Amino acid sequence: MNKTTLQKAFAVFLALLLWHIVAVTLDLGFLLVSPIEVAGRLLTIWFDPVFWPTVANSLLRLVLGFSLAFTAACLMATIAGRFPIVEILLWPYIVTFTSVPLISFIIIFLIWLSSSQLAVFISFLVVFPVIYSNVLEGIKSTDPLLLEMARLYRVPWGRRILFIYLPNIKPFLVSACSISVGMAWRSVVAAEVLGIVDGSVGEKLYMSKIYLETCELFAWSAIIVLISTVLGKLFMFALGKAFARLERI
Fold first, then answer.
1. CB neighbours (10 Å) of residue 156?
2. pTM of the full predicted structure?
């Protein structure tokens, strides 16, 4: 274990200690519970019969929204990189998606979509501009001399994408995905909370708040953080493997 890891572990310990001291000092369980109580609930919550179906339902919405956004963003960025007019036409939407508060989108689209559809759509709106902007930037920063050489030698578009554009896009796409996976997960949960989606992680948070089950609220919050961390690492691992396989072609 290196020095940085030990320092981070110590910082976490201090944060938990401070949390415990404040909780014990207040002695108001409906306002703040101690980390020991939360840890105890975390040891049992996995065995609740509704736990895994609840997590699976929310994860499904995340996968759908993220997959649609990832595919659409990469496709539109490629087209925009080839035809600048497409970038100009998409610019108002990208600015809107990145500027308008998430809560506004949730409230507006809750009028038109079901609660379950809303969570998928909100994750799409959060992920699309991040990946689109980064992929487009990677395309724009490609060495023009390489592109000119490819044009002179009439290199097919498929090979240009694979051997010229893709290596240049890789760091931009990796950076975008490392950010957007966690953002997508949090947006799904936020949409579920406001839409009160049955059988979802967001619903569990909402009900915990309504019935002042503070320990339950903290436990589900910890699970959200844990899932976000694991999802991010798994996706980045899979993305790295995909790039490595493409580089061997």
1. 9
2. 0.87
State how far the Cα of 104 lies from the Cα of 213, in Å rounded to an integer. 28
3-state helix, strand, coil in the chain (%, to 5): 85, 0, 15
**Cα distance between residue 8 and residue 14, in whole Å:** 10
φ, ψ of residue 143 in degrees (nearest 5): -55, 120
Neighbours of 42 (CB within 10 A): 17
Average pLDDT over the chain reads: 88
Which contacts of 157-166 are long-range, i.e. CB under 8 A and separated by 24 or more positions?
A: 161/78, 162/246, 162/249, 165/81, 165/138, 165/139, 166/243, 166/246
Element (H, E) at 106: helix 102-109
Q: Give long-range contacts, CB 8 A cutoff, 24+ apart: 94-100.
A: 94/129, 94/132, 94/133, 97/125, 97/126, 97/128, 97/129, 98/129
Q: Are 215 and 41 in contact (CB under 8 A)?
A: yes
Q: Which of 209, 197, 32 is nearest to 120 (CA)?
A: 197
- Residue 15 has which token pair? 């944060």
Q: Alpha carbon 247 to chain centroid distance? A: 26
pLDDT tens digit sequence for 80-126: 988 999 999 999 999 998 888 888 888 888 888 888 889 999 999 99
The secondary element (H helix, E strand) that includes residue 98 is: helix 84-99
Q: How many angstroms separate the CA atoms of 110 and 106, rounded?
A: 6
The tokens for 96 are: 């809107």
Alpha helices in 141-213 (DSSP H): 144-152, 157-160, 166-195, 201-210
Tokens of 164: 């010229």
